[in-house]
Specification:
By secondary structure, the protein is of the alpha+beta class. The protein has helices spanning 15-35, 49-56, 65-91, 113-122, 133-150, 171-181, 248-251, 274-284, 290-297, 303-306, 309-321, and strands at residues 37-39, 97-100, 103-106, 155-158, 190-191, 213-217, 227-233, 255-256, 263-267, 286-288. The chain has 11 helices and 10 strands. α1 packs across α3, α1 (15-35) packs across α4 and α4 (113-122) runs parallel beside α11 (309-321). It is globular and about 65 Å long.
Amino acid sequence: MATRPRKNANEWENRAFIQSISGNADQTEWKAVKDGRANLQAGIMDDRIADATEQFVGDDSKDTVFQKSEATYETLTGTLTEEILWRQKVLGKDYPFEIQGGSLVHVPGTSMVYEALLGITQAETLTEGDHTILPRWFERIAVVTAQSYLGPTSVARHTGWPRPWAQKKEFKAVVDLLNELTGKRNGEWQWHPADDRPTSPTTTDVKDGGVDVVAWIPHLDERTGQLYLLGQCACGGDWTTKFDDINIDDLTQWAKISVVPPIRSFFTPYRVATPYMRDASRKAGIVFDRIRIVSVLRKGHRSQIVARLPRVFTRLINVAKLPKPPKAAAAPQPQTSGSA
């Protein structure tokens, strides 16, 4: 739902409104995925058009309330269409929609990358029932994206919590594994807690240090000095509050990470509007939103990995379409006899 733009405000001050236009486009695209097509006005049906009217019509206008509302509606629809046209221009053939008349039509390709990421943002929940698989699969997609971004010789691993692939769940075990995988180089992924930190912290104390993905470019020699990319994933609607989740200073209180300063990165299935992109880039490092993930994966260097992703994406979409699981009814309280 679009928020109201602020008068005489710059782009950053209106960042919530600008981001909400992207949300409207997402709603329209998702309706097209589910129904085959969507009216380009579908994404703004829930907006309080009349409330925003004064932001678009001059104070000296003599239009009726109805006319003002219609003018605002047309303005918002135009902005929504411009957002969709921008996505189409950037992604080209990898954008799975076409504008036909006044409708947005879903044209699925061989890969369901875009639709899967979109579905995650439109799921009714990420924390209940089958929906809990959505953020986990997104982290797998982020791993492939990071590896694809760094190039054909790169390596990437999932490190986020929970870690079903690991026998030992502690953060120390992850650091030890990375030390093994990266060549046991001096000063890189060596477990070395600060004096005031426990030597073997529980998962209650530290789960993943905010790091869901680690990718690197190995040197063929055994010398120190590899480049590491540390990634944070954010799937929920509160993604704009997650830019500072990776704290390098705190990570170095647990381990020697790298001699070369690592690069931080941020992965989200949302389309990040420009004002938020600037903030996120300053605070979280390289940002990979839905547009960039699709752009990177279409040039993926690991064709055998990317080839498996459509099945994953289809499952993601099917799960995202499920309604939120109903909450179980509370068990009846046993009755007691006697006086209180």
